[in-house]
């Protein structure tokens, strides 16, 4: 390694690294120390000119895992001024990648988020020109994408490096390629034991047969993990393992693709019947993107893949399904929710390929890629869908049950596909150009008359809903986006609608009075703001058997709530609501006085509440929350800290997020006996400077996140005494707060994870 003299860089930046940008590493991965050392030596050694190193190998061999371990190594962290990680995948979106790289380097202010791709490229080049940087570009598919992207990364003589992972040798040839080796038999056995026994020793009677199974995986890490999923769910008996080993051994072939396919077939065969369709559904989602769990679950339910029982809700059952798939090593845990459970998941490339192949064989799902661009004729894509390419200029009729389109928006619209037997239509855009252009999708409602699922969230439908949507009487799931300001009253004819997602690109969206007629609605998600009106001539809030109640509604966001006399009555229309996102606005009553915050205790089943306030600063707010509340997010109320006790007395509250001046004031004195059951606390963009608290004030805290609290002097040192505390993350706070957490690190035990990310922005 060597030192580079960097001129014209602020002194405070020269020894800082972006620690929080490190991707999370799966604890179950095995050590590849020899490979890791080789890559690190290539990155930190050699000449001073910018250099490019690539890790090349087949899907599932461990390219990304190795890159993550290199990226997070002590040597690399302390060698480079700046590190950034981005993932390309089969769909190349240059502007998104530039933003992803920039997010690791600077705080993305609104002026940067609004920049064009060309301006972002100029900004990135200016930031990196005089720095010793490391940029990791994960899963690069095509040489065309690589040739385009590398021009955004400036060449300098500071020892900068670019690390690429790719399954394509053609991409690797453009750099100093390192072909990743397969696992040895010993490494495969070590990984198999780790996945099955969670670090415990393997019983002696299973060692011999276990080694045989590991050896037959022939060094492919994914094969080992998939096999472990089967064995973990099998009784730990030698004869049962021998039966699996015999069947496996007799049919394993030398070709790595075929071998892994067979092992995945085994994993699939051992799935309960109710999970097989759910697993194959992952084949619909794009590669290298985290899958939002709430969207996945709602699609499963709308597709009828979740079997209803009396013991749990459909959403709870679907979460159980997903956890079962994760437990079988078929799906990967990506992001946790703040109050437990899953926020996002992902599927490994090879498993995703298997899902597509199996879905095609079983006529479960058909993928159509529309393109007249030869750059999409990639070997791996051809392997999957070689007969599913469609010319966008041709009109084609489909007879499949489920269709998933990968296409440019204009190609999809021009093709005007049809299919009277199609029940589900999903669309994923493969190009982000002209994303704001509006398109007429009215042909869908005449060409696909039996749809139950329609996901066009990535297409701008324009300023109004298309004509004919009222004829989609079977529709259960509808997701659209557009410059829509009003939803037509005819939507009430969609009597089977369960999930309604509308991304309003102009901000406020007015929902019609007839929305109250959609009795099957379970989830309504409108961004940025949904305005629901109450028509007094239609609604009566007295007596029993109110016909306007939305009994099934469990999720509603983002609802605009101006305080009026009938606001509480409107909230009573959602008796079973569990999750609410809303914006509260002050308003004047008949006497010219400003009204207080509405009572929310009428929502007796509410568990999650996210609420933001618009209006004058409040000197007081009479919060009346339901006792059932478990998660609370507040923004912009600017209340004095003395009023936080109302929240602190909520006995079931597990998660609290105070954002963007939710509370205002320099001193927060915590009171004993409050927040007794709080597990997760996030403070962001607050002006508090003195936080007077002890470990007794948050006895069950597990995670503490502090972001952009510039004035905070220190984090209470006694927090290290909280026995449940697992993580403290301080991001973009002041030097004093960072130093206090560093001192805590010296006193903390090995189980407390402390992450510190400094806030810096380069002046140009």
From TrEMBL:
Compartments reported by the entry: Cytoplasm
Residues in NB-ARC domain copies: 39-201
SUPFAM superfamilies assigned to the protein according to its UniProt record, in alphabetical order: L domain-like, P-loop containing nucleoside triphosphate hydrolases
UniProt-listed InterPro entries: Apaf_helical, Disease_R_plants, LRR_dom_sf, NB-ARC, P-loop_NTPase, WH-like_DNA-bd_sf, WHD_DRP
Alphabetical UniProt keywords: ATP-binding, Cytoplasm, Hypersensitive response, Leucine-rich repeat, Nucleotide-binding, Plant defense, Repeat
Gene3D superfamilies for the chain: Helical domain of apoptotic protease-activating factors, P-loop containing nucleotide triphosphate hydrolases, Ribonuclease Inhibitor, Winged helix-like DNA-binding domain superfamily/Winged helix DNA-binding domain
Listed name of the protein: Disease resistance protein
